[in-house]
Design a protein that fits this description.
homodimer, alpha/beta, Rossmann fold, 3 domains, six-stranded mixed sheet, 11 helices, elongated, DNA-binding, Lambda_DNA-bd_dom_sf (chains A, B), Peripla_BP_I (chains A, B), transcription (chains A, B), repressor (chains A, B)
DNA sequence: TCCCTGTACTTATAGGCATTAATAGATCAT
DNA sequence: ATGATCTATTAATGCCTATAAGTACAGGGA
């Protein structure tokens, strides 16, 4: 709170004194509820505000039950991570742009620990803001559920579900995007595909992608056996996975994480296997841990910026009661043509199921 | 504000009612100032708190305390820029960490336009926070001066001066760091150096670097003529600059912007000139516009994270009146040994001044 | 008995704002 | 002139907590 040049704090009472009106009148002007006021009164108050640079104290405002045009941003991990990972950056970009254009400021909550908590001692500091945007790869859903139960307005960025609790969220349509990539590969003549993911995939977004993959496969009358799902436990397994794929006549890979695709590319280079001439590889948008790439990967991109903007818009719409809560919004992913997929090399007579991989490549579902 | 499950809000007054004491007594227990209380009273209050799950409302708490534990962050350009430039990122990292550990949250001000304004309609939203951190390559110093005039507590990240106005800022010691790099080159036997910068350099930080360069040169009894300053108008000029340098027997370059150094590296590669065997190149910390590099540049790094942390600490110290305002802090840059400088190839007999470059390479000062 | 000194609390207030009920003043009809 | 009806503004209240100031009571000394 700024001290005014003359010592005392800058409050509505002070403005009122300067303008020769009551504190209540200042409050009316500040909040635009000044229809009833004389132009003269309004102007005197405005002039005093202008001259002093007065701004309402958000704390007092919240306490008094008002709104403060502050949007909370809670991330379940550090916003600005040490390792230079850009995960949050594009989201924040969209959030900032949209908040800016709608006249809201951002309140970024800091909190210690790797896993950040909303509730500390049973209370949430989010209350400082009118509503909040929640981001994070590893949210504590118990905390989110509690927040929802309390009726606090928030929008999650990313598809999140709580059983028996409807949530507001803005999600990329991974299912649709993955289905589109899968169909594209089928169009190119591929009949033996595999879906690869690290560490059993990334929660709900991962599950959505797999759903799209299987959906497209079923539509093309490819059964589960012909469209396997391989869990890879680390990028160092890339070589072995590639071997398995080639051994079993797989001609196209859908890879959830780009970092895994990069490892595959290295493995391909080592064996003189060409992408896409020998094998097509599509990347499904997850760029965790990647900084730059030699390859122009085909697949799709997650519209992070748009998601951030849409979530911000949605939250503000809810706060200003233009949209009922909860509300879900879906954003299409940006398809990337790229150069890592191509027509199948030697189309096989369809129908032969893909055999089990040799080693610890488990097939899920 | 969290609602009590049973409908009414859970306040100290409510706890007091349950425990049969006054609200003030509850406050005393909550804040551990209960030395004067009977064990019995204390226990009754504690039991009531326990049973209801009451926790003090942080908002009312700060209102009563007069501070809101909010630190404003104002950037004179977009915080999250479109082009993926990480300029602000490391600063924010340090700010976030320090704010977190000192119990402050961050209020990021959004505002439209490329050049962001502190004052909109004659008022400053910074007042929302207890104090603010200011960042930016192109600050509007008139606005900063106005802020200082109003007595608003702020700390600038980066060396900034306003004539006749003392400011608080945390700056990297470019002068010292550049002097150190220069001395290192002199130790390696170089006697013909040049300082290269794009677009007439980067304001105050640029001026500080040049000062360090010239300081070290003078100490080594090299006059201005032997230590020229070349302004380069664009990276596409790198080839020509390199030609000039080689023609004139210059063996070491101090390059303000890494992006210019990258262009020089490309030019060297094109002419089969080796860095550092044929020419030494030191980079003076400015990484604007660079994403990754093939070269392990010698020179120094700007301690952005430390600067952010130090500025945050300084601001909080000022707010909590442990340090008087204004206050200036200097942070040493991290020297980088790197592999782009080496001993001079063919030491010349010293003393010969560097001739003027042929073309539009102007020598400043 | 009266005063004094603690002790164990309570009362009152501030902190800055939003909001509602109340009031003074002006206008109008009767 | 009197009340009725508006209109512009203010006084009062609540939000929840921390804290300074105050009070009631007990015990001890003179």
């Amino acid at each position: 709170m700024t001290a005014n040049p003359r010592g005392g704090r800058l409050t509505q009472a002070e403005i009122a004194r300067i303008a020769g009106v009551s504190q209540a009148t200042v409050s009316l002007v500040v909040n635009g509820r000044d229809e009833a006021l004389t132009d003269d009164t309004r102007e005197r108050v405005r002039a005093a505000i202008e001259r002093t640079g007065y701004v309402a104290n958000p704390i007092a405002r919240v306490l008094a039950g008002g709104r403060n045009k502050l949007l909370g941003v809670h991330t379940f991990e550090k916003v600005f991570p040490l390792n230079g990972d850009d995960f949050y950056f594009p989201f924040l970009l969209g959030i900032e742009e949209e908040a800016e254009s709608l006249g809201y400021d951002l309140l970024m909550f800091t909190s210690s620990g790797e896993q950040r908590r909303i509730f500390v001692d049973g209370r949430s500091r989010l209350n400082l803001a009118d509503g909040a945007l929640l981001l994070g790869r590893t949210p504590d859903m118990a905390e989110v559920a509690e927040l929802a139960r309390l009726g606090y307005p928030f929008v999650f960025i990313g598809h999140r579900e709580i059983p028996g609790q409807a949530l507001s969220y803005v999600a990329a349509d991974y299912t649709d995007a993955t289905a589109a990539v899968t169909r594209r590969l089928l169009e190119l003549g591929h009949r033996r595909l595999a879906y690869l993911r690290l560490d059993a995939g990334g929660g709900q977004p991962g599950a959505d992608r797999v759903a799209g993959y299987q959906l497209a496969a079923r539509s093309a009358r490819l059964g589960p056996a012909a469209t396997p799902l391989w869990d890879v436990s680390g990028v160092d397994e890339a070589g072995a996975v590639l071997g398995d794929a080639l051994d079993h006549g797989i001609t196209a890979l859908l890879v959830e994480q780009q970092i895994l695709a990069e490892a595959l590319a290295a493995a391909c280079a080592a064996r003189s296997v060409s992408i896409p001439a020998d094998i097509s590889v599509a990347v499904l948008g997850d760029t965790i841990g990647v900084r730059g790439s030699e390859t122009d990967w085909s697949g799709f991109q997650v519209p992070k910026r748009e998601m951030g903007a849409a979530a911000t818009r949605l939250l503000i719409d809810q706060l200003e009661e233009r949209v009922s809560r909860p509300h879900v919004e879906s954003i299409a992913c940006r398809p990337v043509e790229g150069s890592s997929i191509g027509p199948v090399k030697t189309p096989l007579a369809g129908g032969a199921a893909v055999p089990e991989p040799r080693r610890n490549r488990s097939i899920t579902e």
